[in-house]
């Protein structure tokens, strides 16, 4: 038995030593941004830190807890000179981080007053493969949209600097939220992308659909008077917010019809139930013919 135990234990101890060494490296918080609905953005810098889109890190704040590590998806792009995470205040630890960063105070906080942060990572996820396809479907549910913030930012940087070498040609983005509050911090990024794509006469590059799942059409009738306005009354985007849940069978069939003979990457960050639905649709809408359309499903659950 000891022969089978020693090997894994040795590897585990090596992993813990590497993690301890990485956690001791200095991390500097360069900016703290307070977004609506008690969501804060931490922009940080660390010597030698390299990331890819959609990756995540473990974060420890000794001022809050000396032992707790919490995973957060990186929302910055690799092309930016900092890395960032968005933290929604939903528990004791996040509330402690919120207060430690001085977000509960009205006055401006000096950088030297910000707490020390330990970072371990980054670690890979399925979203890293998004640039391996010409066509992708990105599906985010609630705060599960964070990895796609990194993807969309990186796509924009690559598109601006060297669009000819960018294999990715079409993005279908779906965002499902229960209430309007979750839209507020991410809608700014979509508005920026929407405006910049229109300036370059390539508005078709990004096709996005935002679903407010906590409402139905009856509850949304008082917004109907604003439907003919140029921008959506909730998000401020040209694309109108949809109510209820998407009909995934219709969405997959429509995309398959528009991209015959393609390998389409389907990326999800969301609950297990939605993952099962998208996996079944990916299988049922893929053709048996190798030359036909194929949906390749990738997921990360929370």
TrEMBL record:
Its cofactor is FAD. One of its GO terms (biological process) is superoxide anion generation. GO terms for molecular function: metal ion binding; superoxide-generating NAD(P)H oxidase activity. Its main location: membrane. InterPro entries: Cyt_b245_heavy_chain (IPR000778), FAD-bd_8 (IPR013112), FAD-bd_FR_type (IPR017927), Fe_red_NAD-bd_6 (IPR013121), FNR_nucleotide-bd (IPR039261), RBOH/FRE (IPR050369), Riboflavin_synthase-like_b-brl (IPR017938). GO terms for cellular component: monoatomic ion channel complex; NADPH oxidase complex. Catalytic subunit of the phagocyte NADPH oxidase complex that mediates the transfer of electrons from cytosolic NADPH to O2 to produce the superoxide anion (O2(-)). In the activated complex, electrons are first transferred from NADPH to flavin adenine dinucleotide (FAD) and subsequently transferred via two heme molecules to molecular oxygen, producing superoxide through an outer-sphere reaction. This is NADPH oxidase 2. It comes from Calonectris borealis (Cory's shearwater). The lineage of its organism: Eukaryota, Metazoa, Chordata, Craniata, Vertebrata.
């Amino acid at each position: 038995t000891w022969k089978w135990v020693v090997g894994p234990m040795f590897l585990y101890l090596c992993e813990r030593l590497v993690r301890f060494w990485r956690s001791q490296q200095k991390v500097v918080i360069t900016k703290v941004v307070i977004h609506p609905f008690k969501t804060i953005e931490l922009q940080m810098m660390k010597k030698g830190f390299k990331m890819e889109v959609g990756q995540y890190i473990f974060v420890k704040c000794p001022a809050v807890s000396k032992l707790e590590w919490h995973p957060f998806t990186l929302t910055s792009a690799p092309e930016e000179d900092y890395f960032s995470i968005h933290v929604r205040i939903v528990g004791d630890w996040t509330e402690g981080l919120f207060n430690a960063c001085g977000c509960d105070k009205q006055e401006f906080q000096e950088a030297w007053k910000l707490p020390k942060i330990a970072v371990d990572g980054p670690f890979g996820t399925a979203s890293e493969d998004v640039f391996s396809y010409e066509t992708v479907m990105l599906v985010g549910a609630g705060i599960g949209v964070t990895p796609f913030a990194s993807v969309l930012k990186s796509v924009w940087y690559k598109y601006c600097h060297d669009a000819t070498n960018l294999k990715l040609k079409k993005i279908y983005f779906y965002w499902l939220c229960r209430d309007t509050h979750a839209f507020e911090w991410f809608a700014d990024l979509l508005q920026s992308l929407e405006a910049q794509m229109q300036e370059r006469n390539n508005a078709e590059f990004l096709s996005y659909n935002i679903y407010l799942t906590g409402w139905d059409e009856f509850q949304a009738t008082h917004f109907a008077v604003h439907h003919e306005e140029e921008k959506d009354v909730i998000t401020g985007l040209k694309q109108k917010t949809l109510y209820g849940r998407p009909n995934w069978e219709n969405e997959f069939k429509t995309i398959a019809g528009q991209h015959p003979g393609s390998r389409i990457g389907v990326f999800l960050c969301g609950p297990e139930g939605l993952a099962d639905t998208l996996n079944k649709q990916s299988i049922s809408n893929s053709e048996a013919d190798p030359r036909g359309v194929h949906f390749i499903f990738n997921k990360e659950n929370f």
